[in-house]
Specification:
By secondary structure, this protein is of the alpha/beta class. Helix content is 21%, strand content 20%. It has a 5-stranded mixed sheet with strand order 5-4-1-13-14, covered by helices on one side. Strands 8-9-10-12-11 form a 5-stranded mixed sheet, covered by helices on one side. A two-stranded antiparallel ribbon has the order 2-3. The protein is globular and about 65 Å long. The chain starts with 11 loop residues before the first strand and ends in a 15-residue tail after the last strand. Bound molecules: fe (ii) ion (FE2) (2 copies). One fe (ii) ion binds next to loops.
C-alpha cells in the first residue's frame, strides 16, 4: 500500500493571481496612487473612490485568507487595465500606463514576497501598445526569470537582436513544483450561462488529451491547467487531471460588460494551490462572499 504522507513543512504553495486590472476605477489601488505630470513637480495623487477602497479591502482580505506564505506567485495576465481606448480612458484613474504599473507594484508589495514570480500575457487590449508589452515591464520589475514556452524558438534573442526589445515572458508557461506539473495561459472561452460555466475547461481538458504526446514529453503532461480572462472561478477535476479558471480583482462594471444587460458578477479573489511533498495538489479559492459585493443603489421615487 502506498504510504500517504501528511502535510509537512515542505509543502509549497502557489498564489495564483489573474486579471487584477490595476488602473481601473473598478479594481484595487494603493492608498495614494500617483498620477505623473509632464515633469515630477507636476505629479499629483489620486483620491481613491469608495468603491476602489472596497476593492482594495478585498485585495487585503483575500491575502489574509492565505494558508501559507506563497512559494511562487503566478500572475496569469492583465496586471493592469491599460489606457482603455474604447472608452477614451474613462474607467481608469490614470490613462498613463506607467502610473498603473507603478501602482500594481505597490499592490504586490502588500502581499508576502514569494521565492519567485512567473507571469503570462493577457489580452492585448489591456497590456499592449503596438509592440510595447507592459507585462514585460511588470515582469522585469518583479524580477521574473525570463522564459520561453519553447526555448528552441529563441524569441528572446530574435527580438533582442532585431527589435532591440526585451522579452521576459511568453503566452504559455509550464512549471513544476514538488513534482506536480502546471500549465498556465491567460485565454479560454467564456461561458455565459451558469449551468455551462465549466464547459470550456471540460472541453479543453478533453482536447488536450490529443496534445498529450505532441506537446509534452512522456511523464511531463501537466497535472493541472490554469486559465484567466473570464473573471470567474470554476474548477473541473477528472481522475488524473484538473483545470480551473481563476478569480479576478475587477468588478464587472465597464460599459463593455453592460452591453448584454446586468453583467455576470465576477469572482473576486485569488486561488491558493498547495502542493504536498508527494505531489498531491489542494486547490483553495479565496473569493469574496455574496454579502461583500458592492450593491446597486435604489433610486427611490416615493
Ligand atoms: Fe481581464
Ligand atoms: Fe483577458
Amino acid at each position: 500500500m502506498q504510504k500517504i504522507k501528511g502535510r509537512s513543512k515542505s509543502s509549497k504553495s502557489i498564489l495564483c493571481l489573474s486579471d487584477v486590472h490595476a488602473g481601473s476605477i473598478y479594481a484595487p489601488c494603493s492608498p495614494e496612487p500617483v498620477i505623473t505630470g509632464n515633469d515630477s513637480r507636476l505629479n499629483t495623487t489620486w483620491n481613491p473612490s469608495e468603491l476602489q477602497k472596497q476593492m482594495t479591502g478585498f485585495w487585503e482580505w483575500s491575502r489574509d485568507q492565505l494558508m501559507q506564505k506563497p512559494f511562487l506567485i503566478l500572475i496569469n495576465g492583465e496586471p493592469i487595465d491599460g489606457d482603455n481606448p474604447k472608452e477614451l480612458g474613462g474607467p481608469t484613474w490614470s490613462s498613463n500606463v506607467q502610473d498603473q504599473i507603478n501602482d500594481f507594484l505597490k499592490l504586490m508589495k502588500m502581499f508576502p514576497k514569494p521565492q519567485t514570480f512567473t507571469m503570462t500575457r493577457g489580452s492585448g487590449y489591456h497590456v499592449l501598445k503596438g509592440n510595447t508589452s507592459f507585462e514585460d515591464q511588470v515582469a522585469q520589475l518583479l524580477g521574473v526569470k525570463p522564459y520561453e514556452s519553447r526555448r528552441s524558438v529563441e524569441k528572446k534573442r530574435l527580438w533582442n537582436e532585431s527589435r532591440n526589445a526585451q522579452i521576459i515572458i511568453d503566452d504559455v508557461v509550464n512549471f513544476e513544483i514538488n513534482g506536480a506539473i502546471f500549465n498556465a495561459t491567460h485565454h479560454i472561452g467564456y461561458n455565459r450561462s451558469y449551468h455551462n460555466k465549466s464547459q470550456a475547461i471540460t472541453a479543453m481538458l478533453a482536447e488536450l488529451e490529443f496534445a498529450r504526446g505532441k506537446y509534452w514529453e512522456p511523464g511531463e503532461f501537466p497535472d493541472m491547467f490554469l486559465r484567466g480572462h473570464v473573471h470567474y472561478f470554476t474548477e473541473v477535476r477528472f481522475a488524473r487531471v484538473r483545470g480551473a479558471t481563476q478569480p479576478c480583482y475587477k468588478l464587472s462594471a465597464d460599459r463593455f460588460m453592460t452591453r448584454k444587460g446586468v453583467p455576470d458578477p465576477a469572482s473576486i479573489g485569488n486561488l491558493e494551490i498547495i502542493v504536498e511533498p508527494n505531489g498531491h495538489i489542494a486547490v483553495e479559492p479565496h473569493t469574496i462572499t455574496n454579502d461583500m459585493y458592492p450593491k446597486y443603489d435604489i433610486k427611490r421615487f416615493g
